[in-house]
Design brief:
The protein is of the alpha+beta class. 45% of the residues lie in helices and 30% in strands. The relative contact order is 0.19.
Length: 201
């Protein structure tokens, strides 16, 4: 995929951040900042996805599955030390797989966005669990490894919202079907062209 299409993915995630606020609020349980007895901060989020554990696992842990809803350019190597990455122009998101139990759990050494360089270098520890719930799957995230400081606090707030939006996008994948990224690129290009024409008038 080219950089233009990757930029569309970036725009799409920003769009979902706005569009799916109601879905996130209704379906994702996002915990307030929690401090354990040793003052360690923990981020916890969960959402029930309307699909089987097998299907949700495939969507989350394969190149074909992840690119069907999160971004057009991804890299997933389901092994310890393997990639779980979303690729954007000049940067990546996601992280490195630490361990996994098929259709139950995946642990990722998570990369923060570039805007949080110290957090990105240090990384956090993200544990995703997949639990069958009748006709759906409960996906829960527990993210630890947070440190003290203004950048860490800002990263926590940013990722609390961002991770909830990602789970909302996964939910949307099983409600609306896979994303056609070529179509998204075409529609975004058309809208951009119409916008420029309108500005010229």
């Amino acid at each position: 995929m080219n950089d233009q299409l990757s930029e569309v993915a970036f725009m799409r995630i920003a769009f979902f951040a706005f569009l799916l606020v109601a879905s996130v609020s209704a379906s994702a349980q996002v915990a307030s900042p929690v401090r354990t007895e040793d003052s360690t901060q923990v981020l916890r989020i969960e959402m029930t996805i309307p699909a089987s554990v097998h299907d949700v696992w495939e969507a989350f842990t394969t190149n074909k599955g992840l690119s069907s809803w999160l971004a057009p350019e991804v890299s997933v190597e389901l092994k310890p030390g393997g990639d779980w990455l979303v690729k954007f122009p000049g940067s990546t998101g996601g992280g490195t797989i630490v361990s996994f139990v098929p259709e139950q759990e995946i642990v990722i050494s998570a990369l923060a966005p570039d805007r949080f360089p110290h957090v990105r270098t240090a990384r956090t520890h993200a544990v995703f669990k997949f639990t069958s719930m009748g006709n759906g799957t409960l996906v829960s995230l527990t993210q630890t490894g947070w440190q003290r400081g203004a950048e860490w606090d800002a990263a926590y707030e940013y990722l609390a919202a961002g991770d909830a939006q990602i789970l909302a996008m996964l939910h949307h994948r099983f409600v609306a079907g896979p994303t056609d990224w070529q179509k998204e690129m075409s529609e975004t290009a058309d809208k951009s062209a119409h916008s420029r024409e309108g500005e010229k008038r």
